[in-house]
Specification:
CATH topology of the largest domain: Aspartate Aminotransferase, domain 2
CATH architecture of the largest domain: 3-Layer(aba) Sandwich
Strand order of the largest sheet: 2-10-9-6-5-3-4
CATH class of the largest domain: Alpha Beta
CATH superfamily of the largest domain: Type I PLP-dependent aspartate aminotransferase-like (Major domain)
Bound molecules: ligand T4K
Number of helices: 15
Strand content: 15-25%
Largest sheet: 7 strands, mixed
Structural class: alpha/beta
């Protein structure tokens, strides 16, 4: 049972939980008006007018030729992998949400886990090279936290070894790399518009690309391979986005500047509130690039900080701040990979180290600056009273 720690009662606790991933809702009236139109039209799914509008707006925003909206990013990744004809082995980071690995394994392709660069938390291009075998067909980079992978180095490895490169850009809508919006790198990129993402369509995702052939294949695959009434010309599944989801996506998109400004303000409040705490670092977003500031990621060095990551999570949870340990313990330590690739930890020292240090804090439109000050005060108080906190945690 949850029990507030005596030590942190120095700061008033939160009466209701503060979640990571609380959805941003946008303009409620604009959404409801769109939903009324959907009902009036009686066109609920299957490439409806709002889905088409959403695709056009996303492609324009990102500056790519094509956007194919899907029911979620997981299915969009699966379709991208099939449309690119990846097979055998594909190199991915282990430090990512489990979907990045599952979309491969689900299709009988082996995800081969590469280690990360500890500075960026992104896949280390040098580690990719070591893992290439005659069975390797591709590389999936993930722009973790919306910070771009080293696309130049990854694509150079891809070119040298004849591998296809695509990106899981689930975190990176609205972010740029070297001045170019993420979405236009590699053969294609995939965004997530899940409820917990800063821009959401309830559930949703999109494959974006400049490649016409890949676009045609992906569109067919998204709709069972139908090329017209009663005419199936390809293997496909149901990856379609609904009109209601597109309505939410369009409404979110209209509020994107406000969303980003709020996330940025929150990020700066956390940076200020946690500055000077020994052994604790809020990760940076490059001020020269566009960022969505969707994740407040704190890295805790257990050799220097008064409390380690797990102790701090326990303190925060006791105070109703539901911080998360994304992406602990790394895909390689989750099933089925844990059993199938028992030696993987040996090849992933940085992933193992960083996965034990990261904590993600709540942000978005539903949190106030006062809330953030309180979260920071809880962390500070806990850090200043390490022994008392440890005793209290032991006694729970
Ligand atoms: N690739 C990467 C790199 C990803 O991060 C993701 C998804 C994907 C691919 C796949 O994208 P999708 O197929 O989902 O489009 C959450 C999200 O479910 C997941 O979409 C996201 N990454 C991941 C980073 O975070 P969980 O396991 O943390 O979800 P859950 O249910 O614990 O929700 C998080 C918190 O959000 C909860 O504490 C409560 C809050 N919440 C959630 C929902 C859905 C709400 O307050 N309201 C809500 O409606 O994975």
């Amino acid at each position: 049972m949850k029990q507030t720690l005596a030590i942190t009662t120095k700061v008033p606790t939160f009466a209701s939980p503060l979640h990571v991933g609380r959805p941003n809702l946008g303009d409620r009236n604009a959404l409801l008006a769109r939903i009324t139109d959907i009902l009036d039209r009686r066109w609920l799914s299957n490439d409806g007018p709002l889905v088409k509008e959403f695709e056009q707006r996303i492609a324009e925003y990102v500056g790519v030729k094509h956007c194919i909206a899907m029911c979620n990013a997981t299915v969009a990744l699966e379709i991208a992998i099939r449309a690119l004809d990846l097979r055998g082995e594909v190199i991915v980071p282990s430090y990512t949400f489990i979907a990045t690995a599952h979309v491969l394994q689900w299709q009988g392709i082996t995800p081969v886990f590469a280690d990360m660069d500890p500075q960026t938390h992104n896949i280390d291009p040098e580690c990719i090279e070591w893992l290439i075998t005659p069975h390797t067909t591709g590389i999936i980079g993930v722009h973790v936290w919306g910070r771009a992978c080293d696309t130049e180095a990854i694509e150079a490895v891809g070119r040298e070894h004849g591998l296809k490169v695509m990106y899981d850009a689930a975190h990176a809508f609205g972010c740029s790399h070297r001045g170019q919006m993420i979405g236009g790198f590699g053969a294609c990129e995939v965004f997530s518009f899940h409820a917990t993402k800063f821009l959401n369509s309830f559930e949703g995702g999109a494959l974006v690309t400049n490649d016409d052939v890949l676009t045609d294949k992906s569109r067919l695959m998204r709709n069972f391979g139908f090329a017209g009434y009663d005419r199936v010309i390809y293997l496909g599944i149901n990856g379609k986005m609904t009109e209601v989801c597109a309505a939410m996506g369009l409404t979110s998109l209209e509020g994107i500047d406000e969303l980003i400004a709020t996330n940025r303000k929150n990020y700066e409040a956390y940076r200020k509130g946690l500055a000077d705490l020994v052994g604790l670092r809020v990760i940076d977003y490059d001020p020269e690039e566009r960022s969505n500031y969707q994740y407040i990621v704190v890295e805790i060095n257990p050799d220097r900080a008064p409390l380690n990551r797990d102790e701090l999570i326990d303190v925060l949870h006791a105070e109703n701040v539901l911080a998360r340990k994304y992406f602990w313990p790394g895909c390689h330590r989750m099933e089925p990979y844990r059993s199938l690739q028992a030696n993987a930890p040996l090849l992933l020292p940085q992933t193992e180290r960083i996965a034990d240090r990261v904590l993600v804090l709540p942000t978005g439109m539903s949190i106030t600056c006062e809330d953030i000050e309180r979260v920071c005060a809880i962390i500070r108080t806990a850090a200043e009273h390490r022994e008392e906190v440890r005793n209290a945690l032991r006694g729970r």
